[in-house]
Write a structure and sequence with these properties.
Growth Hormone, Chain: A; 21 helices; mainly alpha
Length: about 625
């Protein structure tokens, strides 16, 4: 008898397309964001800041040696070495040289800063030619006007050394808030709006934020709107996928696999939108902004698919307490609520960004340790606050937890902490690795130069290729009596991630030696990291739902996502922290995951015992 073909409800494919279009939007913006900040937004902000101008002016005229000693320490090592060699060969003291240049340069520090800002946008051969002229000018610094090219170049590097950690910090904070605010969006949907209205409202706010980012002056307000909208969109579309199937339906897990492919399809297609924006930016500064507009168009398309496919979503996603049938739809009152909530949430997000403009300098002056403690305190308060409110409204049981339940909870907590080490490394893809692709990678294939943003597409491409293979491997593994348990799989994934950063270390060595690294290094890293992701990521959420006592499953999911959020924030701060401590970034990034993975494998027998047969 032939095996009956598994059929999924049409609503699954509606949600597949909706999520693919939304992920196109999200990953197009993500691929462009750090590059846009480092090339356009932050250079202009630093170049016109009075404190920064005074800082550079003082350094150039009184302690100029500090300028090139500090420039992008640990990032622009090759350039620093060239400067040292050039000054030594010429027998010129840097401080004397720069002081003379500033005095000769018409317009003084203002002209140098303006020139330094313009150097941020030089590309390829033009940038290399300026560097060569700058270094060559050292030997003839005695004549009028000599050495100006070098002074301009060093100021440009000084600006870059300031903006790079700032841009990565913004990137990390953005990812942190995207994850944390999702806890609030999920809660509001569960208690008030329902998933359908939350998705519609979140999509509208996200789309508005993306279009707002066209104007450089409003870029941070746009980010605030995207964070707020994503909080309502992202967690709730997965809820509807689950709602398409009865509780015991065996099609549910395969459905999420199909849905997961939609995420990666959107992420892969995003490289073409981001790549087009990058190509325009080679000749027009506004080219980066086109990436945000394309992302906004993707968001509109996502909302259109979702609205047109409502009839295929059955009874899933309506506000709590509403009596619905298979024919039910959102009505005119629902759409009025969506618009009211969109305006309210958008206004709140804009207000928070404006407030941060006032309190942000105070926050920035706090030590990193203080920021982490405050952040963890707020996260903990939010999670337990939502938990307490849900318990009060839901009338959940107050029965004490059993020893077995406490042990399972301990496993969740331990694995959640270990996951921080994984994602803090993995999310370098959108930050330091994105900048490495743009600035330090030879992306030429023949006469064609691959856009740096296209490297963001290798991860979803490799997932498409490898996910079916790993699905078979883990299926076979789980049928064996000696098969790897969930903690062991996660430990292997962390070690594999670290191996990828060993490859990255050697790629950096090549870039330092010859100026640019082969693109093969990054491709290899993304391949290895994808293997690590497939060892860890797909089993994480499943592990939480299997181990958590039913009455606190939402709390445990909150802990899991909170740890992921902390990891994403650290991914943006990692380079600055590591360089401040005097270590090499890539060495730290391969040492910590491999070490943590080995420790996790060592304690796996204990964790497996505490899981009581649930993984």
């Amino acid at each position: 008898m032939a095996k009956e073909k598994v059929r999924h409800p049409p609503g699954l494919y509606v949600l597949f397309g909706t999520e693919a279009a939304e992920r196109f939007s999200f990953y197009t913006m993500r691929a462009v964001l750090v590059l846009y900040l480092t090339r356009i937004i932050l250079p202009g902000a630093f170049a016109t800041d009075d404190d920064f101008r005074a800082k550079v002016s003082d350094a150039l005229s009184t302690d100029a040696a500090a300028v090139y000693t500090e420039i992008a320490e640990g990032v622009e090592r090759a350039t620093k070495a060239k400067l040292d060699q050039a000054f030594t060969s010429a027998g010129v003291e840097p401080a004397t040289f720069f002081a003379a240049v500033v005095q000769r340069q018409a317009g003084g520090i203002d002209a140098l800063l303006e020139a330094g800002f313009s150097k941020q946008n030089l590309k390829g051969e033009e940038e290399q030619a300026l560097e060569a002229a700058a270094l060559a000018s050292i030997g003839g610094a005695g004549g009028a006007g000599d050495g100006v090219a070098l002074a301009e170049w060093v100021v440009a590097l000084k600006i870059k050394s300031e903006i790079r950690p700032e841009a990565l910090s913004i990137y990390g904070l953005y990812l942190l808030l995207v994850y944390l605010c999702g806890l609030i969006g999920g809660y509001v949907a569960d208690k008030i709006l329902g998933s359908r209205k939350a998705i519609m409202m979140g999509g509208i706010v996200m789309g508005a934020g993306l279009f707002v980012m066209w104007w450089p002056a409003f870029v941070f307000y746009g980010l605030g709107l995207i964070i707020a909208g994503n909080a309502f969109f992202k967690p709730n579309i997965s809820t509807i996928v689950s709602g398409l199937y009865p509780e015991d339906d065996k099609r549910r897990d395969p459905a999420f696999t199909i849905f997961y492919m939609g995420i990666n399809l959107g992420a892969f297609i995003a490289i073409f939108g981001a790549g087009y924006a990058e190509s325009l930016a080679q000749t027009h500064d506004w080219g980066w902004n086109v990436g945000f507009v394309l992302a906004g168009v993707g968001m509109i398309f996502s909302l259109m698919l979702f609205q047109l496919g409502q009839r295929y979503l059955g009874t899933a996603g309506f506000p709590p307490g509403r009596e619905v049938t298979e024919e039910s739809r959102l009505n005119a009152r629902d759409f009025r609520d969506v618009l009211i909530w969109a305006v309210g949430v958008g206004a709140f997000a804009i207000g928070v960004v404006a407030l941060y403009g006032l309190v942000g300098p105070i926050w920035n002056d706090l030590p990193t340790a203080a920021k982490v403690i405050i952040g963890l305190g707020l996260i903990t308060a939010a999670i337990f606050g939502l938990r307490a409110r849900g318990k009060k409204e839901g009338g959940e049981s107050n029965e004490p937890l059993t020893i077995e339940e406490w042990q399972r909870i301990a496993v969740i907590m331990i694995l959640s902490v270990f996951v921080i080490f994984f994602w803090a490394g993995f999310e370098q893809a959108g930050g330091t690795m994105n900048l490495f692709a743009y600035e330090q990678t030879d992306r030429h294939i023949g006469s064609w130069e691959m856009p740096a943003t296209w490297f963001q597409g290798f991860n979803p491409l490799f997932i498409f290729i490898l996910a079916p293979v790993f699905s078979m491997i883990w299926g076979w593994n789980d049928r064996q009596s000696w098969g790897l348990s969930t903690p062991a799989k996660m430990g292997v994934g962390m070690i594999v991630l670290g191996l990828g950063f060993i490859v990255m270390y050697f790629g950096q060595q090549e870039a330092d030696a010859v100026g640019k690294a082969s693109l093969v290094w990054l491709v290899m890293v993304y391949l290895i990291h994808t293997v690590g992701e497939l060892c860890l990521s797909p089993i994480g959420l499943s592990m939480v739902t299997k181990l958590s006592p039913v009455r606190i499953v939402s709390l445990m999911m909150g802990v899991w996502f909170a740890c992921t959020a902390v990891a994403d924030y650290l991914s943006g701060r990692m380079e600055e922290i590591v360089h401040h401590l005097g270590f090499d970034l890539w060495v730290v990034l391969f040492t910590i995951p491999i070490g943590a993975g080995i420790v996790l494998l060592a304690i796996t027998p204990v964790l497996k015992k505490w899981m009581h047969g649930r993984g």
